[in-house]
Amino acid sequence: MLEQYDAVLTISDLREILNIGRNTAYNLLNNGDIQAFRIGRTWKIPKDSLIYYLNQWKIHK
């Protein structure tokens, strides 16, 4: 599913994968729902963090 993406995702990647808007993406990161880090003003999202988030969401559904 995510093979075409690098090990570290960008906001654009996150939005594309989850099919969400900009505000929702930033809310997920700022709330800590998806573990990520910032370098300067740029968010970096480890692909493993997104996979973990998706698995948690699937378990709770």
Model description:
It contains three helices and three strands. The chain has a three-stranded antiparallel β-sheet. The protein starts with 7 loop residues before the first strand and ends with a helix. With 61 residues, it is of the alpha+beta class. It has one domain. A hairpin with a 2-residue loop joins β2 (37-39) and β3.
**Helicity range:** 40-55%
Query: What count of structural domains?
Result: 1
Low-confidence stretches: none
Strand content: 15-25%
Given helix and strand content, the structural type is alpha+beta
- Determine the mean pLDDT: 94
Order of SSEs: EHHEEH
Strand arrangement, major sheet? 1-3-2
Question: Which key features would you list for this structure?
Answer:
single chain, 61 residues, alpha+beta, three-stranded antiparallel β-sheet
Give the arrangement of secondary structure elements.
Elements: E1 8-9, H1 11-18, H2 22-30, E2 37-39, E3 42-46, H3 47-60
